[in-house]
Amino acid sequence: MFTKEEIAQRIAQEIKDGYYVNLGIGIPTLVANYIPKGINVVLQSENGLLGMGPFPFEGEEDADLINAGKQTITTLPGSSIFDSAMSFGMMRAQKVDLTILGAMEVSENGDIANWKIPGKMVKGMGGAMDLVASAKNIIVAMQHVNKAGESKLLSKCTLPLTGVKCIKKIVTELAVLDILPEGGFKLLERAPGVSVDFIKQSTAGRLIAEGDIPEMRLD
Amino acid sequence: MFTKEEIAQRIAQEIKDGYYVNLGIGIPTLVANYIPKGINVVLQSENGLLGMGPFPFEGEEDADLINAGKQTITTLPGSSIFDSAMSFGMMRAQKVDLTILGAMEVSENGDIANWKIPGKMVKGMGGAMDLVASAKNIIVAMQHVNKAGESKLLSKCTLPLTGVKCIKKIVTELAVLDILPEGGFKLLERAPGVSVDFIKQSTAGRLIAEGDIPEMRLD
Amino acid sequence: MINKVVSGAKEAIDDVSDGATLMLGGFGLCGIPENCINALVEKGVKDLTCISNNAGVDDFGIGLMLKQRQVKKMISSYVGENAEFERQLLSGELEVDLIPQGTLATRCLAAGYGMPAIFTPAGVGTEVAEGKEIRNFGGKDYLMEYAFDADFAIVKAWKGDTAGNLIFRSTSRNFNPVMAMAGKITIAEVEELVEAGELDPDYIHTPGIYVHRIFQGKDYEKRIEQRTVRKSGV
Amino acid sequence: MINKVVSGAKEAIDDVSDGATLMLGGFGLCGIPENCINALVEKGVKDLTCISNNAGVDDFGIGLMLKQRQVKKMISSYVGENAEFERQLLSGELEVDLIPQGTLATRCLAAGYGMPAIFTPAGVGTEVAEGKEIRNFGGKDYLMEYAFDADFAIVKAWKGDTAGNLIFRSTSRNFNPVMAMAGKITIAEVEELVEAGELDPDYIHTPGIYVHRIFQGKDYEKRIEQRTVRKSGV
Question: Which residue of D lies nearest to C121 if distances are taken between CA atoms?
């Protein structure tokens, strides 16, 4: 089984040179730490920044320079700042190559739920609905099962949706999976030491495991 | 009868302090010369400038700084530059207080034709259709009759329209007229020495002349 | 020129009356119009509808207005970080309309650009789409969303001039320019107010035509919500 | 980073093929991509659809492409100042689609912001509205106009950096930023190309994400269409 850090590390392998990438909060944020050397990636922050850099050194925090998680950050050479309309405009126009975000549930037809649990306090969808509706390539970083041991990869989402038929790839602590255009979770890779059977048991939606499923590699 | 300069001078009286004004090509351009002292007006040029200044001094022309008539111009303190989408955006949002433009024909219900003569080379509407469709207040500066002596104030325009029911005020070499919401040219002022009868004869559309019609004053 | 410069926040918001719809710039606590918010709290104006990406925190930003029960309705994309907000929402005292962040920004843009409605894919197939017109373009579904109609837009800029031109600093820009375009009356508070002519026309983010009142604010706290740092000397 | 910097106009437009749809920035002759236009003329690519506010003059700008019969269709708001253009139009060799200038700009913006269509009042009740959907919002009629779909946007900026960020100078900005956002491939020629990091992030007009190829142009003529001056010493 993979740790959160390892999920992030595996996702980082999907990033290609020159990509513009939007990272959601949580595991996706960790992906920035594993971008392979020699690969140049520009991180978009939906509050209006391209070229997000690392956290500032202590004492160099700038209240005017934050990311979408409201964390103090820095810019990098080549950064640009813009307003919220342009930020979401460039997403909608599919200029962002890859979006990585978390999810509470994903269904076998690519629906995602990650913003609302009925009966609990609702904080809002922020930019998540725009991201999933607009992005040409979305990878979901999530736990395969919840704390109660229930699968989060379902035939149908039970929670209110964030977007429909938009997720194409999922990386969990157990597996890497594609969602097929015709529906179904296609198992691509297993986490080291995790059996196909265990992944099947952990997946409530339709799992397609054909032939030999290799283990994920992190190098 | 008024000269073109005098038409411009009369129109300048309609401008209030703090107005943002878009001036069309021709007589409207002359209006800038007659803006009363103490009145501050910001001229919008639709190619992306607020705060258009006078022509540059000889030798100070800047190829990057032109107005909508492609003339070299200058900026003024407080000027701002923006792109074409914002330029027409601010018009559409009715942030421009007054638009002054020329016309080939105006009808008694406020239609205007000023961009196309069928059978002749058509150069295009440029920003005219946006301006007339968006402006909250439009004054037309035009000749009352064409060179053939035919009225240009009609019951119905004969030329292809630029916009419908959008003109509220007209200043010609003969008169100042409002277009009433219910239709009709309401005569407000006569040019010095011009009789109401002569204006009637020169107006093909319905002219409404009630009571004593004062002469225009240019001071 | 009509004088756009007012003495301060109190004068700037003087005609904001009960029941008004306000847009308030900022993302989180970054780039919020601190002076005007404080003046609105002091004035005690009520039943406000506030369009703002977030709702502040308990003791800062719009949170201060919530604490005083001045807000009838919030239109936001992300709220929370705010216990009083949650209490009022759950008790039914406060209406909340949660909309996608890009929809929020683009509905401001639409107002500023005189476009009555826009199309966005955000929210298609979700509860956000309920009751809304869906239209297919090129095989993809979009929601039609309407331009906002706000009585006042209240924004915070870094620099401004007496002609109303605004320049924003870093990511405190966020919603401020699009809201500045979208208010029937736009009020800008700036950290530094200069004479017309001192700002380079090429680098103005919000042209003065969109700004009706401007003043130099004071005592900016600029609170940081998540102070994240790395160790020096790495 | 993927290298966006190309050697010059020839390389930048190398894959523009016959029948392509191009956006070309500029207003009149102000801010036009001179280097790329010259390279397109040299390449002799044909049957182009050109989206550009104007069509140049007989011996400069897009006029050079017209002279060589490279343009099948012009989509513009204002043409003329161009005898060859007129001849081709009247003889039926050239198609022309005249649309309001604000519609032209906003259809670019729509493409750059991923909005499939926009609403504008421009042209309602005129021949521009023929065959178009009209929709009433708040008592006013609007036309629905579609986002442009251009293979290439070719723009001219003042400064640019190796990350593709662009800054425009004065009114040569005009259509350039909105077109830069709207091309499937965007090519930017700049007067001065600098390293990433040399431009202030706060003052970038077009973020590099929208720009695919960039090069430092040369020999800019920057012809003035209407040289208007006042006498010195007034």
Answer: D115
- φ/ψ region of A38 (left if φ > 0, alpha if ψ in -120 to 50, else beta) reads left
pTM: 0.97
Measure in Å the smallest separation between the Cα of B214 and chain D Cα atoms.
35
A152-196 pLDDT, tens per residue? Answer: 999 999 999 999 999 999 999 999 999 999 999 999 999 999 999
Pairing of strands A138-141, A169-171: parallel
- Quick one: angle between helices B84-92 and D101-112, nearest 10? 110
Question: Which of A58, A66, A71 comes nearest C232 by C-beta?
Answer: A58
Residues in C touching A96 (Cβ below 8 Å)? none
Count of Cβ atoms closer than 10 Å to residue B215 Cβ: 11
Contact (CB<8Å) C210/B91: no
DSSP letter at B93 equals: T
ipTM of the complex, rounded to two decimals: 0.97
Mutate to test the interface with D, among C107, C119, C140, C141 (most CBs of D within 10 A): C119
C-alpha–C-alpha distance, residues C163 and C176, integer Å: 17
- Per DSSP, helices labelled H in chain A are 4-12, 27-31, 84-92, 128-134, 196-201
pLDDT over 70 at D9, yes or no: yes
Contact indicator for D66, D207 with CB cutoff of 8 Å? no
Over residues A12-27, the pLDDT tens digits come to: 999 999 999 999 888 9
Where are any strands of DSSP class E within chain A?
20-23, 42-45, 49-52, 75-81, 98-101, 105-107, 112-113, 138-141, 153-154, 169-171, 175-179, 185-190, 207-208
pLDDT bin (cut points 50, 70, 90) of residue C194 is very high
CB contact under 8 A, D119 and C120: no
Task: Assess whether chains B and A touch, using the rule of 3 or more C-beta pairs within 8 angstroms.
Answer: no
Helices vs strands, H then E, count in chain D: 6, 11
Q: Is B61 a catalytic residue?
A: no
Model pLDDT, residue C81: 77
A6, A46, A108, A173: the active-site residue: A46
| pLDDT tens sequence across B88-113 | 999 999 999 999 999 999 999 999 99
Q: Does the distance separating the beta carbons of B59 and D232 come in below 8 Å? A: yes
Residue A58 gets the label, from left (phi > 0), alpha (psi -120 to 50) or beta, of: beta
Interchain pair D106, C119: CB under 8 A = no
For tokens 């800054």, name the residue: D167
Q: Do the two chains C and D touch, given a threshold of 8 Å on CB pairs and at least 3 pairs? A: yes
Shortest CA distance to B109 belongs to which of B166, B150, B53?
B166
C151 contacts: CB under 8 Å, gap ≥ 6: C16, C20, C21, C22, C183, C184, C185
Count of pairs with CB atoms under 8 A, one residue in C, one in D:
44
Which of C118, C126, C232 is the best residue to mutate to test the A interface, defined by the most A CB atoms within 10 Å of its own CB? C126
Catalytic residue selected from B6, B46, B173, B189: B46
**Cα dihedral C114, C115, C120, C122 in deg (nearest 10):** 40
Q: CA-based angle A170:A172:A173, to the nearest 5?
A: 165
Question: What confidence tier does C38 reach under pLDDT thresholds 50, 70, 90?
Answer: very high
* Residue of D1, D114, D165 lying closest to A80 (CB–CB): D165
